[in-house]
Design goal:
Helix content: 55-70%
Order of helices and strands: HHHHH
Structural class: mainly alpha
Mean pLDDT: 91
Shape: globular
Largest sheet: none
């Protein structure tokens, strides 16, 4: 499974709306450096939370032709929930102001 381009764009837009784009890696090498350093990357974290939701919801992760958000009846809610969790984590880590 892979998040489709439309849903990926929605996820990125929500990360941007929350003021977290300055924390998003610019490329794969930078992402890997952040991950290895136990750092925080909001887009990667939100993506992982969406996949966790898909697995917990019983969406078949073995069929890689489908986007888990397209398969869900709650794609907007999953994106909102994941990005809210990411924002809260960024606040907890003092990477963004507590109130934006």
């Amino acid at each position: 499974m892979k998040i489709c381009q439309d849903h990926w764009d929605m996820l990125r837009a929500q990360i941007e709306n929350l003021g977290l784009m300055h924390l998003v890696a610019g490329n794969e090498a930078e992402l890997m450096e952040i991950i290895r350093g136990d750092g925080f990357e909001p887009l990667w974290m939100a993506n992982n939370l969406i996949w966790q939701n898909a697995l917990e919801s019983g969406i078949d992760e073995t069929d890689r032709r489908f986007c888990p958000l397209c398969e869900s009846d709650s794609a907007d809610q999953w994106i909102q929930g994941a990005t809210t969790d990411v924002l809260n984590e960024a606040r907890r880590r003092n990477l963004v102001p507590q109130i934006q």
